[in-house]
Amino acid sequence: MTQQTGVITIHQMRLHRCEGCLAACRPERRATPSYELPRSLSKCGLLKRARRSPYKTLVARATRTDNMAEPSPPAPPALPTPPDNNAPPMPWFGMDIGGTLTKLVYFEPKENNRRELDKETEVLKNIRRYLTRNSAYGKTGRRDVHLQMENVTIRGRRGCLHFIRFPTSEVGAFLQLARSKGMADLVNTIYATGGGAYKFEDDFKKEVNMRLSKLDELDALIAGVLFVDSMNAQECYYWAPPNEEPVHQHATDTPPYSAEALSVYVRKPFDFSSPYPFMLVNIGSGVSMLVVNGPSDYYRVSGTSLGGGTFLGLCCLLTGCSSFEEAIALAASGDNTTVDKLVRDIYGGDYARFGLPGDLVASSFGQMCSAERRGAVSREDLARATLVTITNNIGSIARLCASNENIQRVVFCGNFLRVNPLSMKLLSYAMSYWSRGALKALFLEHEGYFGAVGCLLHLDSNHRRENVSRHSSPSNIEASRADR
Ligand SMILES: Nc1ncnc2c1ncn2[C@@H]1O[C@H](COP(=O)(O)OP(=O)(O)O)[C@@H](O)[C@H]1O
Ligand SMILES: CC(C)(COP(=O)(O)O)[C@@H](O)C(=O)NCCC(=O)O
After folding, report:
1. Which of 136, 300, 147, 142 is nearest to 217 (CA)?
2. For bias kind Pro residues, which ranges apply (predicted)?
3. Mutation test of ligand 1: which of 95, 96, 97, 100 has the most ligand atoms closer than 8 Å to its C-beta?
4. Which pTM value belongs to this model?
């Protein structure tokens, strides 16, 4: 996604037009966000100021009731936003130190005036150049250039959001780099979330004298999702067969979940401007499932330890692969039916009485108890079976939770879905098929970066959030456990 024109401001929530959206999205639908501000955000001065902003939204709220994006006239030119003289010094970062990957969102200011440019220190310029001119940092750091968001305004500063990730196992190397680039001299506090914000807090202090101001990862996640979605009309999408035929009414010989049927699924934009209620399924190392009724009204309904970390760990064990990208590439060309036991392997056909088609997986990895079959199976097939097992299990739990909670839209995010259309299509099919069309699986372009964005939004908050969120009170934890 490369946004080209239009201005995104938190103050005005007067939103964007992006290159890809000129044909497909409706800038005005986001003109007046229909959600109230996340509690975590509403506590920070940034959005308090936004509410008081004298600038009026220039475009009217969209009146469409369906969720399909469509072309629209261009948005009017942007009004300047007043710079905020009390803003914290640059550079501005938000950080999510997860179980597998650390995500860093960097705000690159644009439109510096002469005075500001003169004031900018050499160190600051070097940091900016280093981060924005490279897309790889050391051996493992990567910038997801395709996700870059132009024309974001934060505290009266217009700029660009950059999305950077590196393995959490490399936090030590990151700290060394931060020291060598002089970052440590400029930044004394970073808003950070994820388990690593707790685990590595002392290392940040000792190694680079940086304080981590810790935010709850689920608070930050939701704030980030709502913010990025409000900025980018292309953010939310779904996968469906080209003709949108409901998969549970599928009447051809090709099973609707076969590789062949899924291969024709296409990605379509979804208007998520009236989001509530929805279920948010974050597939990171493990999986968290949240019911979101409003920006500051959510609870963690369930989770599973069989997540992205499990997929990668099992794939490494079973296939000898050494990266997520390799695991996904193997899975893309494999066939899980040589590994899994299908209903037809047990019944010789369908188990019709209970509507279980013969092609359905009856037992994941169920064929692997036979030495002969183990000898014949390929790495690709093993990777595919691992992907299908993990994905279907997450899909089943999500579906049960959504039905239980009477929710129709399930939004999946997290880096397990990175470069992984197969899992997204499987989830789309499974949610729709098993709910007889009642549930819709939705996906988000900035997959794993929402926690880090949620942290960036806090950058001017004087309020340090309590470490224990109200959402994880002992009674909630008990409730969540009992739910399983
Ligand atoms: N480059 C990568 N390296 C490792 N895992 C990756 C990578 N890209 C995607 N993944 C997948 O994303 C998962 C981590 O997702 P993420 O949302 O970042 O969670 P966490 O916050 O737990 O690190 C991994 O377990 C893996 O399945
Ligand atoms: C503990 C976690 C919130 C950590 O988040 P992550 O780094 O995996 O994104 C997550 O891994 C999780 O919810 N695990 C599942 C635990 C369970 O409900 O069984």
Report:
1. 300
2. 71-88
3. 100
4. 0.82
